[in-house]
User: What shape does this take?
Amino acid sequence: MSGYLVKEILEHVRMISWELLDDVVEAIIEILRIPAISPSAGGRGELKRAERLQSILSGFGIERVRRVDVPDERAEGGIRPNIIAILEGEDPSKTLWLVAHMDTVPEGDMRLWETDPFEPVIRDGRIYARGAEDNGQAIASMLLVARILMELGLRPRVNLGLVFVSDEEAGNKYGLEQLVRMEIFRKGDEAVVLDYGSPDGSEMEIAEKHMLWLKFTVRGVQAHAAFPHHGINAHRIGARLLLTLDEVLHERFHEHDELYIPPTSTFEPTKKEQNVENVNTIPGIDVFYFDCRILPKYSLDDVLSTIREVCGRFESIYGVRIEVKEVFRWDSPPPTPPSANIVKKLLEALKISRGVDAKLIGIGGGTCAALLRAQGISAVVWSTLDGMAHKPNEYCKIENIRKDAETLAILSLII
Ligand SMILES: [Zn+2]
Assistant: This one.
């Protein structure tokens, strides 16, 4: 497509997106009004919200819509729904996927909210609600892209696939993981996951660190605090172990890679379990956790063997027993290369539609894109966000819904 033609189309896209915006805002408000919290966080799941979204899609005239229900007896209706909608492209042998998630985290401390998190409020060009930004804004942008293309009678260059998944906030088992297993995404397909971004839309995530969550259990000997020499204080040894691991891991795996934010591997002591109830008992057990995000150039096996070495040393010096349990492990797939088509074309679409020169980055990990990359699909994570995810008084800017939709509409035409 010539540069002149793209500019011409952009004018139309801009005009029509302003016209359609109110409709889409109304739709997303209806969606946000229905809670969709994961059963593992005490919610009832996404079914009601998915049903609403389905009827909105059909109301917008999108016909190729399919629902994939994954059984989960803890959820309402016993299922976790996933929705896939396709707009046929000029070349239907390939698909550009846009991915958003329907589930949200719980509202958190209600006292910190100025409005009801499940009664969306529009104020100063923003929609306030739990899930407004994470990931309602993405759902709204995707609805708007579809409407823009249909309204202008524009066919995307390849198939445009809209994917709305469940269970993103709690591990993807009932969501994207299942769709990947069903081979819905095929080799040569490309994807934009709309679940991370900067306030001006200038960050594009192409890489993620390895993730490792570890539980350490230090076993000493419980005793009366007046006679500490009769016991082995697991808390003291645990505290020493925690600081030693902190130091050794940072020293041993110290390399920088400026692609990533932050540019180093991170090893953070996080959760701490309670030990004894009373002050005058020497604790016999100490339990703490580490959240580690490690640059892909290192192997998680090397990290684990360093940890085991340190623990072994502690066992022989202090006479304790130490158990290390992998609570969660994700060996990150190779990054999407900067030369990938989706990266180049999204950079181009951003430049054309908004004059933005985006930079490529890597983050600490855990987005849907990693699952797609592991399947050999080029995936980037991008959108325009104020960083309100999981916070009280979460909001999304209505203008971001529109701007992202315009960029994605252009992307679908030039990819
Ligand atoms: Zn999210």
The two ends are 10 Å apart (CA to CA). The mean pLDDT is 96. The CA atoms of residues 248 and 306 lie 8 Å apart.
